[in-house]
Design a protein that fits this description.
The protein is an alpha/beta fold and 518 residues long. The protein folds into 3 domains: 27-205, P-loop containing nucleotide triphosphate hydrolases (Rossmann fold), CATH 3.40.50.300; 212-283, Helicase, Ruva Protein, domain 3; 305-517, no CATH class. 43% of the residues lie in helices and 16% in strands. The strands form 4 sheets. Strands 10-11-12-13-15-14 form a 6-stranded mixed sheet, sandwiched between helices. It has a 5-stranded parallel sheet with strand order 2-3-4-1-7. Strands 5-6 form a two-stranded antiparallel ribbon. Strand 8 and strand 9 (338-340) form a beta hairpin. Helix 3 (82-100) packs across helix 5, helix 7 runs parallel beside helix 9 (270-283) and helix 10 (286-293) packs across helix 13.
Length: 518
């Protein structure tokens, strides 16, 4: 069977194009050597399971350890029943060990134990019976919640001092979150906020994304197997769109090589990568859909909402920012700037937040298009103002992100405008004081600068700063036509019809700008 790009489950070298799995977690082997108990957390679909399953197989094959990757996921439905969760988990462990280890290294019959002690008893019995030091990587730990999770963590901590004779030589907790962010309904909190139930961990690791060179290395495996080349610009574009997020890197290539370019003599181009991006965004596969679901979490909203507005992270708790980073939705740039993790996630975030708005907008005729498809920008401006008068306030009130609602309603309108005949580019930047939008309709471009005037800036009209920012953005976007949209959110303002105004200006550089106050 020919190899292919994998987008579901762990990678297997005989079936999938893949990079050396230990490369992105080089610290793990050293931690095992020192008998460490540790945590590895990273977003979904970055290769945690693939890497640690491969490392466990290598450690076992080398003959010094009995190493295995097991999971807590089977206990998830029983988080309120500790005994039932333990039984389901141990059944899954035995199944995993049967397939991963030779008979002499598999666990003995699990000993009888009371609920709340079965995991420790099982690990102790396995450690004692095993002829080699036992290494256990426990995946999906944060699939457990509440009392079952706390119980399991406490059992492993309680036996820690007896390793490696009565508890595994080395043990790792593997999941989406760091230990302190495990979900637990206890004492009025919804997470541990402390590592105390597992304060025996030596280190908490995460797993990096692919580098630009590694994306090229992965795609080159397809070329070696099939002869189909990826043009250098196409590889660079794939990295630009994904920032090396492994699932996205594979998903783009999978769509291209299985759906867009079946002819292996045809090279993969930038245009193919962009078409694959659009298909992924439209489809919102399980991985992307699960990320979109995270936007409802208040901790994620605390990071994403100001990002849409270009506002600073004023009173954000450090844990909230770390949580959003751990989920893979945002990242720190080299200079410490926080930004959306990659352009594809940026589009998914905006589309998810505007989905209900877009569905609520009634159909309207494209009155801004001439008979030959040319855009009449004045008519488009008039259509937007009329739309805002009729629907803007109602759609704002239905938003889950009230502070960024005006920006989201505008983007929902623009999505309807370009649907099937253009695109919208968005630049989200914390602390920039604005939102930049680039609209392309039938090959013509419009740059939009969005600013909000709030009570905190009551005496500071943002028009002058907005015009300067719009000039800079239009130069970057490559157009001489722009809108400066000012949402006046100050208290005590007249009703919407009275405060709307539209003013046409021409800048010193000859750019045509409409200042729209709403």
């Amino acid at each position: 069977m020919p190899r292919h790009f994998n987008t579901a489950g762990p990678c297997r070298a005989e079936l999938h194009y893949m990079l050396p799995p230990e490369r992105r977690v080089p610290e793990v082997r050293a931690l095992v050597e020192t008998q460490a108990y540790f945590a590895l957390h990273a977003p979904r679909q970055v290769g945690k399971t693939t890497a640690l399953t491969a490392l466990a197989a290598s450690l076992t094959r080398e003959g010094r350890y009995a190493a295995v990757m097991v999971s807590m996921e089977t206990g998830a439905p029983f988080s309120a029943d500790v005994g039932a969760a333990e039984d389901a988990i141990l059944d899954g462990w035995r199944h995993a060990a049967t397939f991963a280890l030779p008979p002499e290294l598999r666990p003995p019959a699990w000993p009888a134990a009371a609920p709340g002690g079965r995991i420790q008893a099982a690990l102790s019995a396995w450690t004692t019976a095993c002829p080699r030091p036992l290494v256990v990587f426990i995946d999906e730990v944060d699939a457990l919640r509440d009392q079952a999770l706390v119980s399991v963590l406490r059992q492993m901590r309680a036996g820690h001092n007896y390793r490696p004779t009565a508890l595994p030589w080395s043990l790792a907790l593997v999941g989406l979150r760091d230990v302190r962010d495990y979900k637990v309904a206890s004492g009025g909190a919804d997470r541990l906020n402390t590592a105390s139930p597992f304060n025996i961990k030596v280190e908490s690791l995460t797993m990096r994304d692919f580098t630009a060179e590694e994306v090229g290395e992965l795609y080159a495996q397809h070329t070696a197997d099939t002869g189909q080349p990826f043009e250098a610009d196409a590889v660079a574009r794939a990295f630009e769109l994904t920032r090396g997020q492994p699932w996205l890197v594979n998903a783009l290539a999978y769509v291209i090589t299985t759906k867009l370019v079946g002819d292996r003599t045809q090279a993969v181009t930038v245009a193919h990568v962009d078409r694959a991006r659009d298909e992924l965004i439209e489809r919102q596969d399980t991985h992307l859909d699960s990320l979109a679901e995270r936007l409802r979490d208040p901790r994620v909203r605390a990071v994403v909402e100001p990002m849409i507005q270009g506002a600073p992270l004023a009173s954000l708790a450090p844990d909230d920012l770390r949580f959003a980073i751990d989920l893979g939705l945002v990242r720190r740039d080299g200079d410490g700037t926080v930004e959306v993790a990659n352009p594809i996630y940026r589009e998914i975030i905006v589309r998810s937040l505007t989905d209900a708005m877009r569905a609520s907008i009634p159909k309207f005729a494209p009155t801004w298009l001439g008979p030959e498809g040319a855009v009449d920008w004045q008519r488009l401006r008039e259509a937007f103002v009329a739309f805002w008068l009729q629907h803007g306030e109602a759609l704002r009130g239905a938003s889950a992100y009230p502070e960024a609602a005006p920006h989201l309603v505008l983007m929902a309108f623009l999505h309807r405008v370009v649907n099937g005949g253009g695109r919208v580019e968005r630049e989200l930047a914390l602390g920039s004081g604005r939102l930049d939008l680039g609209v392309e309709v039938h090959g013509e471009r419009l740059g939009i600068e969005v600013k909000t005037w709030r009570d905190a800036d009551k005496s500071r009209d943002p028009t002058v700063a907005g015009l300067a920012q719009l000039e800079e953005y239009l130069a970057r976007f490559g157009t001489t036509r722009g809108w400066l949209v000012l949402f006046d959110q100050r208290s005590g303002q007249p009703d919407l019809p009275e405060r709307i105004s539209v003013e046409a200006r021409v800048t010193a550089n000859g750019r045509e700008i409409s200042v729209i106050r709403l």
